Amino acid sequence: MMWSVFRKSVREQKRDLWVIGLSLAFAPLFVMIYWMMTGASGTTSYGVLVINQDVPAMQADGTTLSAGVDVMDGLKGLTYENGGSLLRVIEATDRADAETRLRNREAAALVIIPEDFSEKLSAFKTGDLTAKTDLTFIGDLTNPTYTVAAVMAMTVADAYTQEITSAARPVELVEIPLGSSAARTEFENYVPGLLVLAVVLMVFQAAMTPARDIETGAMKRLRLTRLTAFDYLGGTTLWLASVSVGSVLLTFITAVGFGFRSQGPLWLAFVVAAITSLSIIGIGLIVACFSKTVSQAFVIANFPLGFLMFLTGAAFPLPRFNLFIVWGRGIAIADFLPPTHAVVALNKIFTLGAGFGDVLYELSALVVLTVLYFGVGVWLFQRTQMR
Questions:
Q1: How many domains does the structure of the chain reveal?
Q2: Domain assignment of residue 260, yes or no
Q3: Which one, of 131, 125, 116, 115, lies nearest residue 63 by Cα?
């Protein structure tokens, strides 16, 4: 009897190979995601912007000291055991531009080496104990990668200055928080990710709603009318968007009720979340095109969910691997996933007090992705379900 039940289960599963196939592939998918998160080679390189204003100084023995260059070389020389670089040093010249790149999370930290760095170290080395200078470190304290990058950079700089002077630290390491990042509580740091999570989970609802009509046979009756794929998906999207907006609004109200504070306008953050939800709905509709039942849609939707959560920085920050450059901005694989832009935009608004102009790029990217995914969804739905 047991063997008969086994054979029955196998025959039934043959009718739904999608579910068994995707169930078997789900764990390997996360292995691939973690491989991508660790930089494929097993090492994560943290971007550090360096503005080297240092002027080389002549020492007492007639040699020239270029301490700024030496510190940069030290940062570049910091490696893993396998030889991979720990820090990706990016030379910069303009502080305002460098801070903008920090806000866009194109780098983790900014180091400013002052003009008199070599001069002061040389004077201190000859016995002038009053000759001290500063090294400035700037970053978003709510960004976990800043902490890692800043600690490593500070360690390199501190070790170098002590080696040159053979004395207690002659250089003061000054840390300047970007925006209001130093004033954020631990709870406030988690809110942007939770807000994105509320939006991303809409992929299940968006996938299962059309799948329900397909499973119950309602789609067959709808095909007998003049209904188009655009009409059906447009109406479905209006309903799903209403649910998503309600979820986002409820999440905002709950967070504010527990003491969450935004440095920028909350209405702008709400707009970002709303547009993101539309793009997520588009992805869910694409999933529905390959689903015949609600359970199948649920299983398939877990795959885009894994990418949307773990490859976009919504769950935790990830290193960027740019594919190409467009108008001075690096484009990575994660940029084709809507939560990537939502995370950056919400962090700018909540922590750095950004306005509409500061997140215009992220909003534009979200609109483009929304149109793209919805367009693909309409085309696929017309081919797979409306014929």
A1: 2
A2: yes
A3: 125
Report the distance separating Cα 51 and Cα 112, nearest Å: 5
Of 163, 182, 201, the one marking the end of a domain is: 182
Residue range 92-115: mean pLDDT, rounded: 90
Q: Which domain holds residue 240?
A: 185-384
Neighbours of 315 (CB within 10 A): 17
Domain of 108, CATH number, reads: 3.40.1710.10
Read off the pLDDT of residues 238-274 as tens digits, 9 standing for 90 and up. 888 888 888 888 888 888 888 888 888 988 988 998 8
Statement to judge: residues 287 and 255 lie in one domain? yes
DSSP assignment letter at 63: P
- Which 3 state secondary structure label does DSSP give 331? strand
The encoded tokens of residue 130 equal: 């009053």
Domain end call among 151, 182, 213: 182
pTM of the complete model: 0.75
Q: Is 166 helix (H, G, I), strand (E, B) or coil?
A: coil
Q: Which residues are CB-contacts of 329 (< 8 A; sequence separation ≥ 6)?
A: 104, 361
In-domain check, residue 312 = yes
Beta bridge partners of 58: 64
Give phi and psi for 206, each to the nearest 5.
-65, -35
Rounded-to-integer distance, Cα 86 and Cα 45, Å: 5
**Torsion angles phi and psi, residue 24, rounded to 5:** -70, -30
Give the 3-state DSSP-derived string for 207-255, with helices as H, strands as E and coil as C. HHHHHHHHHHCHHHHHHCCCCCHHHHHHHHHHHHHHHHHHHHHHHHHHH
List residues bridging with 331 in a β-sheet: 324
